[in-house]
Amino acid sequence: MQDERGRVFRQAWIDGVNAYYPGEPKPGYITPWEDTPDWEREAATAVYDQVSAFITVTNGAAARLTAEQKGRFVALCWTGQIFKHFADPKPSYVADWEQLPEWQRKTDSGIFERIEQDL
């Protein structure tokens, strides 16, 4: 079910933010699924599906990627969703991997691994 895939992604994001964000996270970072904007729900489900498809087409060999490689994949898929939903996104919304804060990189890696577990 679409809603469940997006929820898995969102909960993995929230878990990562709670684990790695320095200090008090912005409320939007930990907004529950029910209060998440529609575009973000759609994007979460799309990225879940992209990670799932990647794992599937590699016959699970994607598990051998490093944590950084897994996180980079999630970040790139998310950036694609930002470009899809926003005509002129803020540069920080589409920053390349090297520009992402460490907490976000760790969170993105955790999202990939959570989707692996879900499959």
Element order: H for helix, E for strand: HHHH
Main sheet characteristics: none
Overall domain count: 1
The percentage of residues in β strands lies in under 5%
Q: Shape from CA axes?
A: globular
Indicate the structural class: mainly alpha
Number of helices: 4
As a percent range, the share of helical residues equals 55-70%
Number of strands: 0
Calculate Rg over CA atoms: 13 Å
What would a concise description of this structure say?
The chain has 119 residues and is mainly α.
Give a topology summary.
Elements: H1 2-20, H2 38-57, H3 67-85, H4 102-118
Helix pairs in contact: 1-2, 1-4, 2-3, 3-4
What do these coordinates show?
With 119 residues, the protein is mostly helical. It has one domain (2-118). Helices cover 63% and strands 0% of the residues. It has 4 helices and no strands. The protein has helices spanning 2-20, 38-57, 67-85, 102-118. The longest helix is centred in the middle third of the chain and has 20 residues, at 38-57. The mean pLDDT is 96.
